[in-house]
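If I may wish for something, please sit down with the protein I am sending here and say whether tokens and residues agree:
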Amino acid sequence: MSADPVLWTAADAAAATGGRAQGSWTASGVSIDTRTIRPGDLFVALQDARDGHDFVAQALAKGAAAALVSRIPEGVASDAPLLIVADVLRGLEDLGRAGRARMGGKVIAITGSVGKTSTKDMARAALTGQGRVHAAEASYNNHWGVPLTLARMPIDTDFAIIEIGMSNPGEIAPLSRMARPHVAMITTIAAAHLQAFGAIEGIAREKGSVFQGLEPVGQAIIPEDLPVTQILRDCADTAGAVVIGFGDHGAARPVRVQSEGGILTCRARITGETVDFTLATTGRHFAMNAVGVLAALTAAGADLAQTAAHLSNWQPPKGRGAVEDLDGLRLIDDAFNANPASLSAGLAMLAALEGGRRVVILGDMLELGADEIALHRAVADDPAMAAVDLVHCAGPLMRHLHAALPEAKRGLWTETAGELAARTHELVTAGDTLLVKGSKSSRISTVVDALRARAARNATAQDKG
């Protein structure tokens, strides 16, 4: 079995960071977590909730090639393989910049209020067979996630897909400048993180700052038909970008979207060319994201026909809208995150599914700012709610939606998601189609966990029977 290729030598990493390397080690990967570290990785001792220096000895014992540190930790030999820098996070950023600088392929950055991770995964799947593709893991899109993704990038990467997120003003532009994308795509702008921005216009300007990092004559893929589309265009124009709009009235637009048997069959017009593709989902909002992906990837030099054909390889990730059969239920698990726009998309997806009673289980949408109560109440007026039979809610904010619902649709309300999870037998019955949605911190995913545990118990009982 051949060894993994070398990603960083001690000398290269020291030159990139301005640090001091101990030993002549070579690293085949970069890790920040001893739980998932692989032999040959460079362990980065970040200081976050816990100090990564406390885990250096464990990382080396698990086979790490070396550790990026700001001091020699207690319990680690003075001659251990280390890269010593003044500041570990800054060292990781420097490593990321160097990783980007030595790569000769194309970089696509993806940001937006909703759908960053699923769109990034969609783009990775669509590029199958078109060279070496490197993309962020999970939702690694923040101040350490972006440099980590860049530091992990093989030098012979043909296409890199970098997800960029934010929680507060001023975060996106520096990350984009680090990634230096050739193409930057914004999925959509919606009421998310309003607490930090005050108004959706502020969110649009922050998301639009992704264009500040574009390479010369870079391309900006922006959603059309939004109240803030002009703000995004202004941001792209200021950056000197070539703008391609996607949406019902964009240069890249869906022509036909049909749902049948859990599959979307789509036709799209992408800057003058027509292509057909399929998606393994019934969520029509994913079709619009796919149109944006096709525009972005072809702008980066990918073959449009191949890209469209391989969109069928994409699967919605767990907790982000995947549909599964579970113990007589059809479950849409979308419990990873929530804001008004993504919840509306989830409700529309539920309404489009045929057969059985439609049930919704909702946790609080967080970080919505001063209008959070009104935004929760407004969900009752969503057009897709007409097709919903029953709504269960958890959390103090969702209590306002619960009160605004017609009595016939009102299910249970509990203060916490845990209380709702303890009453799964009251929430659904066999044959129901179920959407579970809420912000991650609402812990509404505990309801999904409880439903899965119940299904596992039932399956075990049947096996024994």
Remarks:
- The chain has three domains: 8-87, 103-313, 322-464.
- The domain at 8-87 is CATH 3.40.1390.10 (Udp-n-acetylmuramoylalanyl-d-glutamate--2,6- Diaminopimelate Ligase; Chain: A, domain 1).
- The chain is about 35% helix and 25% strand.
- The CA atoms of residues 67 and 95 lie 13 Å apart.
